[in-house]
């Protein structure tokens, strides 16, 4: 099976921590040159320094906010203008404000749409021409199992991520003929700082303990445990590889079997 990403360049968004950082590590291990994008430069430096360079990979980072697609457009346009290309795009953005849908302000909803959908669209417009020229491209959107099964209390996330999933399916149909695949990977309950925050909020809202929330959550997962970041990253890395060239336009849950749909 060909998993080799040597001489491929990947742009991983939201890569200063959590799932984004885990994906960056996995892609680097497969030989890719990895460019990170996130707001926290200190964390970006630390992740960059920890990436594998045993095959001569060259890594870098961009300091940018996913909520500012115009700034990201400037950074990536400048990068591409130097004769470089991006073969793999991993769209990943921190979860929007939690809460019931009808308690959501228009401002928070717009922030969610901008950070998740408009930034992904902007990046795709920038990198797809190079992918077409190289007859190889991988676009991965890290979303949520909420795409298949909405999660109570995450109104904006449920709404926006489902929109990105349909955007991705449309794009997959449009550019699949050029050797480019577009897929969504849907993390379930995976050990991250974001999950710790959500468990804490749920416990506070319900007047119970975090341990009780965790126990209840695990009881809904057939695998009987929370996911590891490395397990999720491995699924993303496979879809980025040459071996996955005929997998296009799918939503892949990595959730221990929690989602009830097929």
Automatic annotation (TrEMBL):
Sections of the chain in a coiled coil: none
Top-level taxon of origin: Bacteria
One Pfam family linked to the record: adh_short_C2
InterPro entries assigned to the protein according to its UniProt record, in alphabetical order: NAD(P)-bd_dom_sf (IPR036291), SDR (IPR050259), SDR_fam (IPR002347)
Gene3D superfamilies with a match to the protein in the record: NAD(P)-binding Rossmann-like Domain
Similarity-based family: Belongs to the short-chain dehydrogenases/reductases (SDR) family.
Designated name of the protein: SDR family oxidoreductase
Source species of the chain: Sediminibacterium sp. KACHI17
Record lineage: Bacteria, Pseudomonadati, Bacteroidota, Chitinophagia, Chitinophagales
